[in-house]
Amino acid sequence: MKKGLLIFLILQCAISYAQDFSLTDQGNRWGVRYYDGFCDPDNPDTMGCSETNLNGYRINGEVIINDITYAVLEATFNDNNPNWNTYLFLREENGIVYSYTETQGEQILYNFTLEVGDSIEIGFGGDCFDDENNNQMADVIDVSTQFIAGQNRKVITFDVFNNTNFSNSYVQWIEGLGDTGDLISPIVVFCDTPSFLNCFNNGNELFIFAENEEDCDSLLSISEIQKTTATLTPNPITDQSIVTINNPQNNTTIAFYNLLGQLISQEELTSNTTVINRSDFPSNGIYFYQIQQQGQVLETQKFIVK
Asked: Which of its termini does the chain have fewer beta carbons within 10 Å around, N or C?
């Protein structure tokens, strides 16, 4: 009987995470609106509300680090003239989202297995305050399932206000979307510099969560230009390999980066094939290339140099 109950519980856990979406899905895009520290988003006529910026984030490509596959998270901090660059590497497993950087290694970014009564350590910035025990902990006060952005998603609510100066908005994590305040800093609460997840694109449809948000469409929409694709063979590179571009356009470039995101070389594509030499890279290891057109990254792919 006990063995049967254990198997049932294991199956229940597996079923609970048998979702058909992930925060790290290719094509996911987010728009996070950051306000000036003196602006009250609930009262847009207040001083400083004109000083805002819509930051963009997107999953674009994969890379292998220490034999683990990560999705490439790119970011742009200029909604008027987007210039996407690698920001973090992410992976998701059993409801937990991990981030990787060269300096900090792998860390937990989100834990969607949390339930009511669980607590996590959280960093505070600005005019936030510790809890009644004088420690920086956030307690889970509610867990629910809500239909958001075309999916039934787990929503975790913490007993921490995201912006205590302006509104009673609790910090929330939404499965597949991230934090309702700041995608890449979910365990840091900045109480006097409001930021809100204003829009999300799952690669097929744009969802806007804020009124009068006009910049999301141009920043997050998937344009026809992204039909351009590329392949590199052979991979790994031991002597020479060829990058073949499908549907190349004018002003298309290929750029090569190491795992730190440092640019190694970049050249404009004049034909649909480009020869890559082993001698172009300083050492053996994992690298990735980006196909860019008019400042927009169309594709990011990893490769190995031996």
From this structure: N
